[in-house]
Amino acid sequence: MHEAGLDFEKVQNCATTPSQVNQLMGTLNASKSSMMASLGPNPGYFPHIFVNGVHLGNFSWVSLLRTVCNALETQLSSSWSWIPQADADSHKMKMDANQSLQACSNASFQGSFTLTSSLSAATYSVQIEAFVHALSSALNMATSNASLPIHYMSYANLQAVTGLRVQLQGGSPRPFLNPASGLMSETAAQPELGLGFPLKKTLVDFQMSILTPFGNDCIRGCMFKNHGPFAAFLHTALVEEGFNLDASTLTVVSNVHFKEVDGA
User: What is residue 163's three-state secondary structure?
Assistant: First the structure.
């Protein structure tokens, strides 16, 4: 309070004086009544967040970031359309502004890991779309686990992954997942590895695009505690996608590698 230049006693007095509280509540309710009315008789659970009068059904941090980025890009493109490219000062202003939108860009990473579980690479490959969805979910949860405060609620999942290509050992085409639309392409089965062990290893190669501010958080989340939380997230996601994993056997992730590459 002191650093913000606020008088705590005045704030406390305002918050504990019924007449002032009621006045503030009336002002706030009046200002948001039309927006709340637009949600209909069953608006759902709080919080209800509106940006430029539009309700955000997805109130994750990344959804908010994307909304702000889209609004800024629209404003910047319209307000800078008149800037002459030959003007050095104007050109510099465009460059600085573009750099300020770095948070809105995507970073691209190549990654790989070894998945040890009760299922084989062939089993995963037959349901490759479900596997890619599960891996996307696990990467998002690992990112959230590293980015958000401890004991965050799962509904605050950042959903920072914007694209994912996966290849399992055996050389099938790389299916592509667009998390925003859920659309896939290029699916194919792969031959059984035939290792003959109760626990089977699957070598996973992937290429991921993710919102730039969360790239390092994703890596930290996957590496955290010797990959234990990431493995748990992946196990849960695989089960949710319909894979019949042995409940008595741990899903283990090892040999995790990330490398940032050009192009998102």
Answer: strand
Distance of CA 176 to the CA centre of its chain: 17
User: How many other C-beta atoms lie within 10 A of the C-beta of residue 68?
Assistant: 13
- Domain of 218 in residue numbering reads as 105-261
Q: Is residue 71 in a domain?
A: no
- 192 by DSSP, 3-state: which? coil
Q: Which amino acid is at 14?
A: C
CB-based burial of residue 207 (10 Å sphere; 0-12 exposed, 13-18 middle, 19+ buried)?
A: middle
Contact 28, 126 (CB under 8 A): no
How many other C-beta atoms can be found within 10 angstroms of the C-beta atom of residue 224?
14
pLDDT in tens, 56-78: 777 676 777 778 877 776 666 55
Residue 180 lies in a domain: yes
Question: Which residues make Cβ contacts (< 8 Å) with residue 100, sequence separation at least 6?
Answer: none
Length of the chain counted residue by residue: 264
* Residue 178 lies inside a defined structural domain of this protein: yes
- Count of domains in the chain? 1
Q: Confirm whether 122 is domain-assigned.
A: yes
Determine which of 21-25, 49-53, 136-140, 183-187 has the lowest per-residue pLDDT on average.
183-187
